[in-house]
Amino acid sequence: MTNHKPEAKSRSDEAAEGPDGGWSWPLVGALFVSTSLVFGLMRSLGVFFVEFVQYFEESAQAISWISSTGLAAQQFFSPLGAALCNAYDTRVVVMTGGFLAGLGFILASQATCLVHLYLSMGLISGLGWGLVFTPMVATVVANITRRRALALGLGFSSIGIVSFIFNPLFQFLVETYAWRGALLILGGLSLNIVPCGALIRPQRRPKAPEKVDSESRPSCAEVLRRVASYVELPLLMERPYLTYTSAVTLLNVGYFVPYFHLVAHSRQAGFSDYQSAFVMSAAGATDILGRVASGWFSDLGKFRLLHLLTLWTGLAGVFIMLLPVSSVFGSYAALMVISLLYGFCSGAMTSLVFAVVPMIVGVERVMGALGLLQLIESGAGLLGTPLSGLLKDVTGNYIASFMVAGGFVVLGTLTMTTLPHYFSCTDPPSPRRRSHDDNDKSLHFELEQISRSPSDAGHRGVQ
């Protein structure tokens, strides 16, 4: 009899987080496909770069804003996707995002000017990506508990895998059907996100604690309160979440720099075009290995996920700073070794960045927390590459660019060490969302205490 209630509580907690079986692993497969059609496709759009420059006769900077707009839109609209999932159904939101992603490419295939491409491939497809990525990640996090890091590592490994497949495939499509026909095919390919969203089972939502009369309309304050709860804006008032978000934002400044400038730096160092391209391909291969291996090792439970995350991020920052140093002496072998190590560490940290979030905010608020995280770090992702390009223009080489990028990653690692209970050997209990009933009870209790205060009692006695 004494053990009955704790068992019920533990079962309810496990049900809230989701079992590691049944329908959970098909969701990992859906995450695998959807991330490949978001970030894998986004990484491979460089094939169309030369085609757009020649057809529209515009500068390279103007063409570059197409992919930058898509990346910024994906991160900017992530809170919108999280809010819609909290308010309505995750399945419908993801399926709508897949439709918009495909629609953007289909409209881009009929573009007659760059503005058309900005609106279609940038804004519409970016909006669709924002409605897909965060809800899919949050769904996997909520449904898998014990092997969460491994599940995220497997889901994100598709980004590196399809990067090898999409580049030659897109080049073949462009040569066969021209860029308009290739974009039309990519639109149809992106529509495969829709059946991935259909795999998400609708969640049972608890009944609302308050009922509004049909005749009365909710006030403006009530609407704002509901919107804030859907977006999880109260998280911005919590120190652990702000500290972690700041750390990830600093990481994001330098994380993408090698992907954009490593090939150009290798060519400037005197290596051939083939050798320079192979350096990035090798880093992408170890990136895939790092995502899976890190997820498997993290789920063994030997170390805290936060400690492993700081280990991989710190090493990634150091290896970024070593990339230009290894090529100063003209050693291609040294550059290749550092690139392989950087690729492994950058892949190992990716899945842990998302796996740590539920330990900081709780599983119930993961959806909104990931959306806000994507929004805040979007500016840092756009800042890193132009900053490194500016340093290259000023100094004439990429040494300062990689040094500054690696410094930002190391600074983000140091910021993580300021999280509460960081130096503890065990994870603190995950915070849980306070229900409206709990808030109302605490408010009524405080009002009763005020009404029964000694000064109030003395005042009533004098009267």
UniProtKB/TrEMBL annotation:
The keyword Cell inner membrane does not apply. GO terms for cellular component: Golgi membrane; plasma membrane. Residues 27-424 form the Major facilitator superfamily (MFS) profile domain. It is a multi-pass membrane protein. Its main location: membrane. The chain crosses the membrane at residues 21-42, 62-85, 92-111, 117-142, 149-166, 178-200, 241-262, 305-326, 332-357, 369-387, 399-423. Belongs to the major facilitator superfamily. Monocarboxylate porter (TC 2.A.1.13) family. PANTHER family: MONOCARBOXYLATE TRANSPORTER, MONOCARBOXYLATE TRANSPORTER 13. This is Monocarboxylate transporter 13. It comes from Scophthalmus maximus.
